[in-house]
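User: You have something folded?
Assistant:
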Amino acid sequence: MQVEQVGAACGESRRKAPEKQKKSSVSWKKNQNIFLFCILLIPALNWLVFWLYVNISSFVLAFQTNTGEWSLINFTLFWDQLTSPYGETIGAGLLNTFAYFGLNLLVIFPLMLIISYFIYKRIAGYRAFRIIFFLPAIISGIVLVSVYSNMISPTGPIGALLKKMGVNMPEEGFLLNPDTATPAILVYCLWTGFTTNMIIISSAMSRVPVEVLESARLDGCSAFKELIFLILPMIWSSVSTLVIFLLTGIFNASGPILLFHPDGGFNTMTLSFWIYQQVYGGGAYGGTGNYGLVSCTGLIFTCIGVPIILFVRRMIEKIPAVEY
């Protein structure tokens, strides 16, 4: 009789065990959801207060005239500014903005990956190169701009060298000529563009297992194949994040044009500087006061940029990340 009672108790205990595990699993999942909700609540509130609430008035201004009347005149003015071939317009600023963005994404970023790889491989003098490429992040921008301006001036060392090589220089210098000012600033951006992202990529490369590279080297893998087929897939999460960050600045990419030309002259204007000039202006009396046109411009480029960023992000996420 006692054996039967013990057996029944054990059977009852076994039947209750799955129920307890199920309740425990439900409770854990509930606590996890509450934790995730509380964590996500902080950035959500930050976005609602410091972006949506602040920009609501900007959205409204895009559909109003300077007198407060509802109108689509700002969109007409935007189109006129975009297509006008004269003066410091949205179209001129947009072309320079695309030039800076293309330089960052198509030139500086690939070169930064290659340079980071060679520093990671500890080539001869890699410590010196690491310091050289990080110097622009340490030295003041005003100092770098002054040095660069003097170097490429007609009386500077690079200007004198170009003259000896037979290169035709503008008499006023590259930075004071409308045809060469923006290309000269682009060269400066190329010179000083290998800083913060290089630190991130170098840190990601340092996490790659040495055993994988040694095995590939024994199989006769070249440096190019090692970078393309081993290093990049293993650091793809860092690379893809940086690419998305670059895309978020597609319409506000700009160089240090205020350090070279405080008034944005010599065809150096970018879209960001055009917005700044419309709001604040370059003189004592502020900007044009046409806040509706500025709001309309920001709204249009936001509607264009957001789908591009989401599409590229979706394409990037389809590339599988390597776990190691």
